[in-house]
Amino acid sequence: MAESFKFELVSPERLLLSEQVSAVVAPGSEGYFTAMPGHAPLMTTLKPGVVQATLASGTERRIFVHGGFADINPEGFTLLAEHAVPVEEIDVADLDQQIRNTEEDVADATDAAVRLRAERRLADLRNAKEALGF
């Protein structure tokens, strides 16, 4: 069995990571899972959370993802995220402001569909803050 495998994390804005890795922990729709060399094929959607990739060199990279899907196959692991940001680039004050703004959106919503979208966004933002440990 190989000691590393190819991992790519891509968002619509950019390629965030394309490296040989020894392990990747990702937030699948059914919970966090760890992919290692020789992992069985898998395709799953993602929930908001932090992807932790251990590079073959031993260095760790942490990237927050929101939405998308993961595909593990014999060639490697590709994670296509709707939104992805390296954890070190996240501004906690900005995240807190987004939460406050979305709380106002929920309170101000007069239409049930608009309120539901705002409530889902608020839950995602709060889950993101928790996943990031802020």
TrEMBL record:
One Pfam family, short name please? ATP-synt_DE_N
Supply the alphabetized keyword list.
Answer: ATP synthesis, Cell membrane, CF(1), Coiled coil, Hydrogen ion transport, Ion transport, Membrane, Transport
**UniProt-listed InterPro entries:** ATP_synth_F1_dsu/esu, ATP_synth_F1_dsu/esu_N, ATPsynth_dsu/esu_N
Membrane-crossing residue ranges in chain numbering: none
Q: How does it sit in the membrane?
A: Peripheral membrane protein
Location within or outside the cell: Cell membrane; Endomembrane system
Q: What GO CC annotations are associated with the protein?
A: endomembrane system; plasma membrane; proton-transporting ATP synthase complex
Cite the ATP synthase F1 complex delta/epsilon subunit N-terminal domain residue spans from the record: 5-84
Which positions are tagged coiled coil? Answer: 92-119
Tell me the protein family, please: Belongs to the ATPase epsilon chain family.
Q: What does this protein's UniProt record list under function?
A: Produces ATP from ADP in the presence of a proton gradient across the membrane.
- PANTHER family membership: ATP SYNTHASE DELTA/EPSILON CHAIN, ATP SYNTHASE EPSILON CHAIN, CHLOROPLASTIC
Subunit structure comment from the entry: F-type ATPases have 2 components, CF(1) - the catalytic core - and CF(0) - the membrane proton channel. CF(1) has five subunits: alpha(3), beta(3), gamma(1), delta(1), epsilon(1). CF(0) has three main subunits: a, b and c.
Q: What is the designated name of this protein?
A: ATP synthase epsilon chain
Record organism: Aureimonas flava
Taxonomic lineage? Bacteria, Pseudomonadati, Pseudomonadota, Alphaproteobacteria, Hyphomicrobiales
